[in-house]
UniProtKB/TrEMBL annotation:
InterPro entries for this protein: Apaf_helical, C-JID, Disease_R_plants, Leu-rich_rpt, Leu-rich_rpt_typical-subtyp, LRR_dom_sf, NB-ARC, P-loop_NTPase
KW Hydrolase (keyword) present: yes
This enzyme's EC code(s): 3.2.2.6
Reactions that this protein is recorded to catalyse: NAD(+) + H2O = ADP-D-ribose + nicotinamide + H(+)
Protein name: ADP-ribosyl cyclase/cyclic ADP-ribose hydrolase
PROSITE patterns from the UniProt entry: TIR (PS50104)
Keyword terms: Hydrolase, Leucine-rich repeat, NAD, Plant defense, Repeat
């Protein structure tokens, strides 16, 4: 937030705020002295001639100059004012300056009647008699005095002390001047971009009207505008004339942090300004005591600008709210949020795009830029600055009055070399950190920006840097922030500052971090690795050469992360050219995909190693002997194609994650794995050669993955009681049977995946003792014929997937699974055997999804009481052989989706609950019952056409939809939105029907209306079709004469979007004329006086179409007549007709429609 200085010529010319003109012998020691002191206390710069001898005819040159350079002149008329030629000449000069320089003159009538001054009566008349006698040769000068007195006495804003006290008169005059001065001084605010929003938010935190003491913090990163905002708030509060905004004293202590070790000096400055007396206390403790005692009864306004906690500024300048009188307000600006977390905080963030451009233009051009070349270049600079006001001001000022060539050169330079002024300002926050926090910040700036917080915290914790506390400090100092997606982020220029610091080290030959591939390659080629190197984190697509000589020199290296995305044909990484014989024993984080050697160096003893990832490597073994690695928590050896056995795990007591997925030649896992008592996740997915698996003796295990371990025939032995919420995945493994004894003790399993196990014939009854089981998956077990009889004992089961098995009769106890939400038996595998579902008996209270598709269900296969499934939302019965459905299906009040497609023997649609949203049926049934579905089921919103090539059915559906839409008109008029009228068709090609004559892809559509387009009782409205997601639409009806006043405009809120919306949906809605028509705007016009309809779309609209829709529309009627003549599948050639409809012509097309009974054509409503 940049702070432009006031720059008008008028404000620049004033040296003084006020010039005081008075008769010394009358008021110098009384009224005028009091007035001067109050003006001075209020910070109003006042000229008073202290020597004021008041003799002679001509006023001195310096006095004349002071009058000319004063914005206000106060003239104190007293009884003897006119006796002084000095005073009268001074008044003439003042009135001349009023005319010439537009100064403000304020007369005060001190114990005199204004009419006596105006008309020179009483004491003024006597004085002029003496002047006319004494100076009879200067009649012209005397006349000037009279004119000046008359003009001054007639001025507005005067004060007469005869009807008020001196104090009231002084208060009135000073308040009047203060108000005018503040209005002028606050004119600079109009040039501060976005200031109004900040002031409103801060004022709401200050709550000035409440009679308490309050501290409010303004927090943000360096250069974001905290000081500017605080100054604007300070000045604004001092302008207010409301009594609640009147403070006994005010002080703005600027840039406190730069006054290191001078707290006592700051205290003296603060006390002097607030008490209006010189304060000289010798130490900060005395100052603290004096502030607590002297300000207790004062209502003060204080700004403490740019503080940190290094010298405890806040403690000594505003240590306790009790130090200040009621109504006091203290504003604190800081980069450290922690200092003010117990107070109200206004967080200042970077400027938005428009604001950033506006501010940059102020400094680069002084106005809006019109040249297109400069506009384009300006956008590049603004993009680089990322809304940081400091950067926008510095860069804008440096580019002002420069040519295009210089601009281009400067932009190129700033991308490679950051501006030192910007960096040095931002670096203040870095300098305020503890050394260990500085290291953590540099790691984030160089490597971890934009990465997931959890993963990065693991890296930082491995480096013994107090990661949790350190991250909090960085967040509080506005150096980093956490996004809503839990990623660590920072401003671009903050990152640039961090990397700038590291590059300074590089220039000194002591670079500590590398993040650019080219720098890494250069170091390897030139063998320039040094002891200073701490971290390398590079990503590349190219093959890297790693130098042993360079690696040997980097003995302090704690992070080595080389991420390579080049793959060989066999799925392994191609990363490194050459061997690696030395690795730093100081490594904490070691990631090197495609590691080229058969094993790690024998000298590698990384006792502090936390994370090891060598996926896609050439390893045959990790190391031969047992290693003592007490800190190691994660090993990833995935895609180790040549690895045949794992290392000895004895020296890894803290191992938590072991990833051996896709190790296709791995035959055994070392028996010492049971020593890893803290193991949380063990994944051996697709280890096809694995035959031997050790006894699992681990209480902490949460995930065991053995999917696609084809050679593993025996279920692993597990001797200890597992941790709650363990998941076991053994899908598509070679397991032949499940040991009954195992499930008697491992009751904490939450997910058991046995899908695709080819030889599994039955589940042991002990599986029903898994009281914590939430998901059970036996999908695709081709020999599994039954579920255990006591399956209903699984009290917490929520999902049971038994698709593609031989289970034809689920146990009756299954209905006791009252937490079950998803149940599937689809694709039952026995020919000639019919599936039967047991009576529900008011069980399965939570069931939401039931899939019995292709289960060879016939009449009676579904329970008659299926309607008691009160929570059921989706029922899939497609591909079955029943002719009728249970009547109770109409009682499924929660049902939203019903799939009856490919049910070839179903003779009629069942009676359904009116709340149904989506219905899948065959095209024959869809055409047959379409009118009934649209008119009787108002909540039905979706029609699906899976046959992308059958345009005839698609068009017929759309025509029939609008033919029936008139039945919805009552709902449309009664509703606040058009959501009830929206209907959607799922069509893979997202085609807009051809009979929508006005089509396009823009964000708006306009259509000229034909002559006499409006036919009462026949015009239904404007039919709209679109693909995508529409938030709302605005419709405009424009008169032929283009009379703007009579335009009809209406915003249409569309709320039909739901969880079933897809990109393939084509949406239809109708805009009735009544929604648009406003008689008060028509000015006597009829609808036919309007010749243009225009719609604006808000949202993600891909395509759209518009047409006028009439009752008994010829196009629709022709298609419907074709259906009446053909109850069988429709097969007609395509033909085009032109029909004249009441003076307007409409083209329409009747398309071929066919539906083959031999091919499944699935449509869903």
């Amino acid at each position: 937030m940049a702070s432009p200085s006031p720059s008008s010529s008028s404000s620049a010319r004033w040296s003084y705020d006020v010039f005081l003109s008075f008769r010394g012998e009358d008021t110098r020691k009384t009224f005028t002295s009091h007035l001067y002191e109050v003006l001075k206390d209020r910070g109003i710069k006042t000229f008073q001639d202290e020597k004021r001898l008041e003799y002679g005819a001509t006023i001195p040159e310096e006095l004349s100059k002071a009058i000319e350079e004063s914005q206000f002149a106060i003239v104190v008329f007293s009884k003897n004012y006119a006796t002084s030629r000095w005073c009268l000449n001074e008044l003439v000069k003042i009135m001349e300056c009023k005319t010439q320089f537009r100064q403000t003159v304020i007369p005060i009538f001190y114990d005199v009647d204004p009419s006596h001054v105006r008309n020179q009566k009483e004491s003024f008349a006597k004085a002029f008699e003496e002047h006319e006698t004494k100076y009879k040769d200067d009649a012209e000068g005397i006349q000037r005095w009279r004119i000046a007195l008359n003009a001054a006495a007639n001025l507005k804003g005067s004060c007469d002390n005869r009807d008020k006290s001196d104090a009231d008169c002084i208060r009135q005059i000073v308040g009047q001047i203060s108000s005018k001065l503040c209005k002028i001084s606050l004119s600079y605010l109009q040039n501060i971009v976005g200031i109004d929003t900040h002031l409103k938010k801060i004022e709401s935190l200050l709550e000035i009207g409440i009679n308490d003491v309050r501290i409010v913090g303004i927090c943000g990163m360096g250069g974001v505008g905290k000081t500017t905002i605080a100054r604007a708030m300070f000045d604004t509060l001092l302008v207010r004339r409301d009594s609640s905004y009147q403070f006994d004293g005010a002080c703005f202590l600027e840039d406190i942090k730069e006054n290191k070790g001078r707290i006592n000096s700051l205290q003296n400055t603060l006390l002097s300004k607030l008490l209006r007396e010189k304060a000289e206390y010798n130490n900060k403790e005395d100052g603290k005591h004096q502030m607590a005692s002297r300000l207790r009864s004062k209502k003060v306004l204080i700004v403490l600008d740019d503080i940190d906690d290094k010298d405890h500024y806040l403690e000594y300048l505003a240590g306790d709210l009790d130090w200040f009188g009621n109504g006091s307000r203290i504003i604190v600006t800081t980069r450290d949020k922690h200092l003010i977390e117990k107070f109200g905080i206004h967080l200042v963030t970077a400027l938005t795009g428009h604001e950033a451009i506006q501010l940059f233009n102020q400094y680069a051009f002084g106005k809006e830029v019109s040249d297109e070349h400069f506009k384009k270049l300006s956008l590049e600079v603004v993009k680089y600055a990322k809304g940081l006001p400091l950067a926008l001001r510095v860069l804008g000022s440096s580019l002002r009055n420069r040519g295009i060539t210089v601009w281009k050169s400067a932009i190129e330079q700033m991308k490679n070399n950051p501006n030192s002024k910007i960096v040095e300002n931002l670096k203040i926050s870095y300098d305020g950190l503890e050394p260990i926090q500085q290291e953590m910040f540099l790691d984030i700036a160089c490597f971890f920006r934009g990465k997931e917080k959890g993963a990065i915290m693991q890296v930082l914790k491995s480096c013994d840097c107090g990661a949790e506390y350190g991250l909090d400090v960085l967040i509080e100092r506005s150096l980093v922030f956490i996004t809503k997606y839990s990623k660590i982020e920072m401003h671009d220029l903050i990152q640039e500052m961090g990397r700038y610091i590291v590059n300074l080290q590089k220039n000194l030959g002591e670079c500590s971090r590398l993040w650019l591939t080219k720098d890494f390659e250069e170091m390897m080629i030139n063998n320039t690795g040094t002891m200073a190197m701490e971290a390398i984190w590079v990503s590349t697509y190219s093959t890297l050469r790693i130098s042993n000589e360079a690696m040997k020199n980097m003995k302090r290296l704690r992070i080595l992360y080389i991420d390579n995305w080049t793959w060989s044909s066999d799925g392994s990484y191609i990363t490194h050219d050459g061997s690696i014989e030395y690795l730093s024993n100081n490594l904490r984080w070691f990631v090197l995909p495609g590691y080229p050697r058969e094993s790690l160096p024998s000298t590698f003893e990384p006792k502090m190693l936390v994370h090891l990832k060598l996926s896609g490597n050439s390893l045959r073994y990790l190391w031969m002997e047992t290693k003592h690695l007490p800190s190691l928590r994660r090993i990833d050896l995935s895609r180790s194609k040549r690895l045949m056995r794992t290392p000895d795990f004895t020296g890894m007591p803290n191992l938590e994650y072991l990833d051996l997925t896709w190790c296709s030649n791995l035959e055994e896992v070392h028996h010492s794995l049971g020593c890893c008592r803290k193991l949380i996740r063990l994944d051996l997915y697709n280890c096809k050669s694995l035959m031997r698996f050790p006894c699992v003796n681990v209480e902490s295990l949460e995930y065991l993955g053995l999917e696609y371990c084809d050679s593993l025939e025996k279920f692993p032995e597990i001797h200890r009681r597992m941790k709650p919420e363990i998941q076991i995945h053994m899908g598509d493994s070679g397991i032949r049977e499940l040991p009954s004894s195992y499930f008697q003790y491992q009751t904490h399993i939450t997910k058991l995946d046995l899908s695709g196990i080819r030889n599994l014939v039955a589940l042991p009854s002990s599986i029903c003792r898994l009281k914590s089981l939430v998901r059970l998956n036996v999908w695709g077990c081709p020999k599994l014929e039954s579920l255990p009889e006591e399956i209903g004992d699984l009290d917490n089961l929520e999902e049971l997937d038994a698709k593609c098995t031989l289970i034809s009769r689920p146990p009756s106890s299954i209905v006791r699974l009252n937490k079950l939400k998803i149940l599937s038996f689809s694709s039952f595998g026995y020919d000639g055997v019919h599936f039967e579902f047991p009576p529900v008996a008011e069980g399965l209270h939570s069931l939401e999804h039931l899939d019995l598709s292709y289960c060879n269900l016939i009449d009676g296969g579904l329970p008659e009481d299926i309607g008691s499934l009160s929570s059921l939302k989706e029922l899939c019965l497609d591909g079955n052989n029943f002719e009728h459905l249970p009547r109770s299906i109409a009682q499924l009040g929660a049902l939203q989706i019903l799939d009856l497609s490919d049910c070839k023997r179903l003779t009629q649609l069942p009676e359904l609950h009116p709340g149904l949203n989506v219905l899948h049926v065959d095209c024959h049934m869809a055409l047959k019952f379409f009118r009934d579905l649209v008119t009787k089921r108002k909540k039905l919103q979706r029609v699906g056409l899976d046959d992308a090539h059958n345009d005839s059915i698609y068009n017929l559906f759309a025509h029939a939809l609008f033919q029936n839409i008139s039945s919805l008109r009552h709902d449309i008029f009664a509703s606040d939105s058009l959501s009830e009228s929206v209907f959607s068709i799922v069509h893979p090609w997202k085609k807009i029907p051809s009979w929508f004559h006005h089509q396009g892809r823009d964000s708006s559509v306009s259509a000229n209306l034909p002559k006499n387009w409006y036919i009462p009782d026949k015009f239904l409205g404007f039919a709209v079709c679109y693909s995508g997601r529409l938030i709302d639409s605005t419709a405009e009806l424009i008169s032929v004469c283009d009379d703007v006043i009579s335009w009809m405009t209406q915003k249409l809120a569309l709320s039909n979007h739901s969880e079933w919306d897809t990109e393939s949906n084509i949406h239809f809605f109708l805009v009735p004329l009544a929604v648009l028509w406003d008689t008060s705007k028509a000015n006597g016009k009829t609808p036919n006086d309007y010749g243009l309809i225009r719609l604006f779309f808000s949202g993600e609209v891909k395509k759209y179409g518009l047409r006028l829709l009439y009752k008994e529309d010829p196009e629709v009627e022709a298609l419907l007549q074709m259906r009446k003549n053909n109850n069988e599948p429709i097969e007609h050639s395509t033909r085009i007709r032109r029909i004249r409809y009441n003076n307007s012509e409409h083209d329409f097309m009747i398309n071929e429609a066919s539906c083959s009974s031999g091919k499944k054509q699935k449509s869903h409503f």
